[in-house]
Task: inverse folding
């Protein structure tokens, strides 16, 4: 991945481009979503669809704090530290499963 469209070339862009490339290259080395509980998987699916935490809580009929707890558990089990990393590593895989 050489260029990110619409973002001028600079050292920060280069670092982001390299990180995104590394994430894509290592996607097969990360834990499977099969290790998630059903509720964690529900939260995971909505996270990678770009839903906000409040929207997830409303859609699943649970408290915001519960969504936050599930999100932390999902990130820990999948070895990611952010929503962006989660989407980059697992978004394409989840789409393929459907």
Result:
């Amino acid at each position: 991945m050489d260029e990110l469209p619409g973002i001028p070339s600079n050292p920060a862009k280069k670092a982001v481009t390299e990180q995104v490339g590394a994430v894509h290259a290592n996607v097969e080395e990360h834990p499977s979503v099969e290790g998630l509980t059903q509720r964690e998987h529900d939260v995971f699916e909505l996270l990678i669809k770009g839903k906000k935490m409040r929207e997830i809580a409303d859609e699943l009929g649970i408290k915001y704090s519960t969504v936050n707890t599930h999100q932390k558990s999902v990130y820990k089990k999948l070895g990611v530290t952010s929503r962006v990393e989660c989407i980059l590593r697992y978004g394409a895989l989840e789409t393929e499963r459907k």
